[in-house]
Design goal:
Elements (H helix, E strand, L loop, with lengths): L2 H16 L6 H21 L3 H13 L5
């Protein structure tokens, strides 16, 4: 996986949160966390620290540890 694909995953996670409603907010949040965790693993596997740091910040914003 390359940096562009990882960034797309980050954007998908952001969109899950952006378009969440009261009815599906918890599910969307969990889906976003799963996408971000996968993005973090991929960023670390290609040793892209700036991208990994970006994902870590988003996870921390959601109250999750990286």
């Amino acid at each position: 996986m390359d940096a562009a694909e990882i960034f797309e995953r980050i954007l998908k996670a952001d969109e899950k949160l952006k378009y969440a409603t009261d009815a599906n907010g918890d599910v969307r949040r969990q889906q976003a966390i799963e996408l971000l965790r996968a993005a973090l693993a991929d960023a670390e596997s290609i040793k892209n620290e700036p991208l990994a740091d970006q994902v870590k910040v988003r996870l921390m914003d959601l109250g999750e540890s990286p």
